[in-house]
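P.,

For your records, the input lines for the assembly:
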Amino acid sequence: MIDLNLYEEYYHMTKIFPHTFMVSSKTQHTPFGSDNYILEGDECALCIDSGMTPLDYYAYVCSLTDLPVLGVINTHSHFDHTGGNGYFPKVFMNPLAEKGAKTPFNDALGGEVYEYPLDYEITPVKDGDIIDLGSRVLEIIEIGAHDLSSIAILDKTNRILFSGDELESGWCNIGSFGPADPRQTILTHYQNMRKLKARADEFDWICPGHHGAPLPKDLLNHVLIADKMILDGAPGDPNIPLKNGGGFIKNEDQKVRAMRYKMAHIGFNIDRVR
Ligand SMILES: [Zn+2]
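Structure tokens returned:
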């Protein structure tokens, strides 16, 4: 038995659809929090992302569902989505995510943070792969730009798109901080959003990795418009919050800009548009 009082300091669980739970995790190191999901099929349950807390997230998930928990699938490599991976019996991810997911968090955030189990096997997934939880079919769609390992998970049965950090209403960073790969551009992000738009008749709701869910799928249109404005040369707003949660955006040279359109907020670097 786990001490639920202790867990409730770090997790807040909300039922957002039948057999679908959002678990928001929050710690002093991730004040921006992250939204993780538990999906139940007829035969088993699967977690989408594992948050970042000092607790055994798998034990918590097992206390919430009567079904066997198949494992966790990561939307991308970042520490605030992969921290609890090592407790799960199976970890699905894009192989590009492994290096980031197994980098200790104190390397990313500085200072002392919790110890995490980082020694686990991964089960690779790729574009077009299907995971069936028993009358609940999920499809993997690769959409790397915010992080090259990013995947969306399309719940074809329930018409929900789980989008990780590539498509969210808060602050969607595309190559705007840290050392980015040359492929992490607004152009790449826009092409990925077009890829999702081509599938838009297959979902009604979007569940991102931060800032709450579910969101109406109009969000995708707003993000497409914001990306297109950047690609067409709109300068964006240099007056952006210099701190993003842990405070890792430095904008002394004013190269990081914000583009906002209705629900979409894109953070980008003017040197990484194309
Ligand atoms: Zn991320």
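Two observations worth noting. The chain has one domain: 4-269. Confidence is low (pLDDT under 50) at residues 244-248.

Regards
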